[in-house]
Specification:
alpha+beta, five-stranded mixed β-sheet, three-stranded antiparallel β-sheet, globular, disordered N terminus, disordered C terminus
Length: about 170
């Protein structure tokens, strides 16, 4: 049975919301006033939306053995690059060059969404996402988040679940 979107942004949306709508995925868009002086985009989103930082996930782009890879981890923690490399079937990972991340995804830093990217990249979603009914990720611009189920996010991005977050509560064996 096809799911109907709960809410769509006005004026056409972002590539992320367009992809969600096209897929028939249930989602909710949350907008907030972005403060350019904010030190952390993800923590700003969690606070502005009144959502626990373990349910708001940041989208990071890393280089795993010469291949760009997307890592989606809770803003409450950080990315474990060694765990990401292992989950992606590589040996070494480092954060990608910011310009390469923007050019490849089609989004600006602080607004990179795991959905609707210009070039589809391998994606790893932190295993802690499974402990939530819904999570929030960037909807493709600063000040805009999309809330959806982690299983829908994984299906739409062909993501694998793996314990790639540090300082997060990852279920064992996930």
């Amino acid at each position: 049975m096809a799911k109907k979107p709960k809410k769509q942004p006005q004026s056409g949306g972002t590539p992320a919301t367009v992809a969600l709508t096209a897929a028939g995925t249930e989602f909710t868009v949350h907008a907030y006033e972005h403060d350019p002086a904010s030190a952390s985009y993800g923590e700003e989103a969690a606070e502005a939306l009144g959502v626990s930082p373990d349910r708001v996930f940041k989208t990071l782009v890393a280089d795993v053995d010469g291949h760009l890879t997307v890592a989606v981890v809770p803003v409450a923690g950080s990315l474990d690059l060694k765990a990401l490399a292992s989950a992606a079937g590589g040996k070494r990972a480092a954060m990608a060059d910011p310009a390469a991340a923007e050019r490849t995804t089609g989004y600006v830093l602080g607004g990179i969404s795991p959905l609707g990217q210009r070039k589809r990249l391998p994606t790893v979603l932190d295993a802690s996402a499974r402990s939530h009914t819904t999570i929030c990720v960037s909807a493709g611009r600063r000040g805009l988040e999309v809330e959806l189920s982690p299983t829908d996010l994984a299906a739409l991005t062909n993501a694998v679940f793996a314990p790639i977050g540090r300082g997060t509560s990852n279920p064992s064996g996930a």
